[in-house]
Design brief:
The protein is α+β, with helices and mostly antiparallel strands. It has one domain (2-127). It is 45% helix and 19% strand. It is built from five helices and six strands, in the order αββαααββββα. It has helices spanning 2-5, 45-53, 56-64, 68-84, 105-122; strands at 21-28, 36-43, 86-87, 90-91, 93-94, 101-102. The strands form three sheets. A two-stranded antiparallel ribbon has the order 1-2. A hairpin with a 7-residue loop joins strand 1 and strand 2. It is globular.
Length: 128
């Protein structure tokens, strides 16, 4: 958690740590080890970082290190990055250099879940 709190960027809503990522996971096929199965994994990074920052442990660490103000800036920046990924309530995954866009259901779910967590945190001042 401390590496998140040490983000050097001033504009946290545009921090490189919030960019969506894609990776391929390869493993040998059980029936034919000479060939590999490929799993494409997409990470809606801003959503996961927002949820991590909103965990009770993150706030406790920020308070211990005297970084509660930084923590609040990071939370607000991550929430802004999540919101920026949607249009009319649907999140979009761009396909690299292509102009083709995808609207994966899991991304909309993660975006809404992260923003819901942020809204609940924002409107429960007695629980901070």
């Amino acid at each position: 958690m401390r590496w998140l709190l040490s983000c050097p960027g001033a504009a946290h809503h545009a921090c490189a740590d919030l960019e969506n990522l894609r990776e391929e996971v390869r493993r040998p096929r059980p029936d034919d080890p000479a060939h590999h199965e490929v799993l494409n994994v997409r990470h809606f990074t801003a959503s996961w970082i927002l949820r991590a920052l909103l965990s009770r442990g993150a706030l406790e660490i920020a308070r211990q290190d005297g970084l509660e103000g930084t923590w609040r800036e990071l939370v607000d920046g991550a929430a802004a990055a999540v919101r920026a990924g949607q249009r009319d309530g649907i999140w979009t995954w761009s396909r690299g250099d292509s102009t083709e866009l995808r609207h994966p259901m899991w991304m909309t779910y993660q975006g809404l879940s992260a923003l819901r967590a942020h809204a609940l945190w924002s409107y429960r001042p007695d629980d901070r």
